[in-house]
Amino acid sequence: MALTGRAGLLALVGVLVVGLVLPSWQGILVVFAVLLACVAVDLSLAAGVRRLTFSRAGAISVRTGEPCAVQLTVHNPGRRLRGVLRDGWAPSAGVVDDRVAVDVPAGGSRVLSFELRPVRRGDRVSDRVTVRSYGPLGVAARQGSHVVPWTVRALPPFHSRRHLPPLLERLRELDGRRASLIRGAGTEFDSLRAYVIGDDVRSIDWRASARSSDVVVRTWRPERDRQVTIVVDTARTSAARVDGALGGLPRLDTSMDAALLLSALASQARDQVDFLAFSHKVRASVPRATLPVLVQAMAPLEAELVEFDARAAVAEVLRRSGRRSLVVLLTSLEPSVEHGLLPLLPALASRHHLLIASVADPAVHAMAAGRGDLEAVYSAAAAERTLAERRRLTALLARHGVDVVDALPDDLPRALADRYLSLKAAGKL
Amino acid sequence: MTAVSPDARRIWTAARGPVLIGAVILLAAVVIALLRGSGEGGALDPRSFRPEGSHAVADLLEQNGVRVELTDNASSVDGATLFVPQPNLIDPERLADLSRRASATVLLAPATGVARLEPETRQPGCPLADRAGAATMGGFVYEGELRCYDSTLVRTGTVTTIGYGGIFTNRDIDSEGNAALALSLLGQHERLVWYVPSAADRSQQKSLTDLVPDGWKFAALQLGIAVVLIALWRARRLGRVVPEPLPVVVRAAETVEGRARLYRRSHAASHAASVLRQATRDRLAPLLGVPPGEDPSEEIARRTSRPAAAVRSLLYDTGPVDDRGLVALAAELDAVENEVRKG
């Protein structure tokens, strides 16, 4: 049960009654008895909450930060229900207004719509639906809760999608499908066609020209149907928060953004994308990924406080991709890479091309530039030590034929996509 | 059914723990109060065993057939000895009324004293206390018909005024003739009313609550009820609080900051200096076209106006060993780097 403001108001009116009319214990008892009677009437005449039935419908997934609506249907088998209803969701589900006044006639139903605007990626689960049913006097109410499960999956926001149009433009230039001053370049033989002035004479196919009346040139195009395996590290280092333009985000979220941009680009380039999230075991796996499937798979991923098992990850990658592919590992360049990943590189590099993308921390760069007092200089020394360690690791990995993209969180998705395009242009896929 | 509101059985299951705890606390309070009930009390309290208490006197009186009644309102004093250890706390009119009704009255150090004397052993010098003899007396000096012990004990009619209460305390009862004097003063009649006024008794005049009309008092009570009801209205939550499942998130730069603090605590100026030198060399080498790992001093000297030896010493020396030198070195390295970038 619950009392309302009217109960308090009634008791306040009672102050006048007691003070002016009946200044005695009897007076207080009389007022209390009246109050109690009102509460009893309300409680007995209010519609029961326990027998209400509920059902839900509406959005099941939405991109983080965008609005969606979830409908809640209330069916009332008993007498008329008047009151207030609260649909409980965790704060990150971003329910705009979680409590509404309800008036459901006896035996009737009402559909209530709640607007959600999730602020965090992941599965947002509804909590209890609570109804407070007022009695006819509005002095007291019955109150009860029901569990009406519903889950809205907040998909990764994919902020870097604004980079996609210029990248696709570059891809088309590469492809030769767009008229430009730069001739399309690639390593895969496309077709033979007649020479026109302006073509590179080095691309003239003399053997074909000999058979034909015209001078014939070979055209090339970028390779297609290559395989790109994206591995996102969801182990302990991905939990670290790195400040970017969008506020402090875990490295994992930046990695996902970069992975989404890369896979969008790669599927436009007609390459096949395999997605793998790995910590010490496979957390998510999407073979032949398309963007809608990929965001669904990424949404519930959270960083785990375990060590990244490089051996198991490499074994998994080798097991899954039979043919040569570009393996993009989104992780963090920490000293642990040297002991974990480095010894396994020969096995991986013999069959695949490895590209490591790492989220750099702007805070460390800011610390390295700090001067002035002793504390700042010591911080600068510690930051320089970290940066030197990363440079050393990058050089070490480069010696093993690994490409490294180490960029700040705001730049990483674009930098990774650019590196992919340049690898494609160079025919290294 | 999807309803999850608690029924009576679940409410009892949830509430019995707190109820049990409350009952245990209450029981403990009662037991402690019972155990500590006796032996307490302040100065000149006939129940107190402490040095400044008066249990010994009360005990002696009881042995001599005097009934000791400790009271805080002294309603019936007729035919009894009235002993007032703190007469200053009582309304003078009431005190006068009481002493008129009592057969004998003993007042301890009322505020009417005319002089002060140090408590010490004094001779009686009057018939009133000849049997007791010397006693520890002092305190205030009074005016009166019969004066003993240098006027620190006087009697006017049935009212005896005594300037110092030492003779009634457990500490001093056994020295000199204190016990005899106390017995002769307090044991004059079969009943002794030991009057220690309480707070309620002290204020015989009307208090604020007496002056307020009854109607207002009950109205205030009713107002309290209203406040409780309003508090209940505001306190009832519409459904439980939903917790947010927060991910584990650590600031990435925390390890770097930790290392900086370690450097600082151990005053690792030389180590920090070598790290900063290495960083500057690594940054300048690609700018100057020097292969990594080789000495860029010559190239730097060529581009700036600095002598090569000074640049080499800046970039390769070990030290400084103190903190101030480190700050200066960092500034110097920055200066060189800026000159190279500009030049």
From TrEMBL, chain A:
Lineage per the UniProt record: Bacteria, Bacillati, Actinomycetota, Actinomycetes, Pseudonocardiales
Stored PANTHER family: BLL2464 PROTEIN, SLR2013 PROTEIN
The keyword Transmembrane helix is assigned to this record: yes
Name of the protein this chain belongs to: Lipoprotein
Pfam family, one: DUF58
Entry keywords, A to Z: Lipoprotein, Membrane, Transmembrane, Transmembrane helix
Coiled coil: none
Parts of the chain that traverse the membrane: 7-25
The DUF58 domain, residue ranges: 192-374
Species per Swiss-Prot/TrEMBL record: Lentzea cavernae
From TrEMBL, chain B:
Domain spans labelled DUF4350: 49-186
Superkingdom of the organism of origin: Bacteria
UniProtKB keywords: Membrane, Transmembrane, Transmembrane helix
Residue intervals passing through the bilayer: 19-39
Keyword presence, Transmembrane: yes
Pfam families recorded: DUF4350
Name the record gives this protein: DUF4350 domain-containing protein
Native source species: Lentzea cavernae
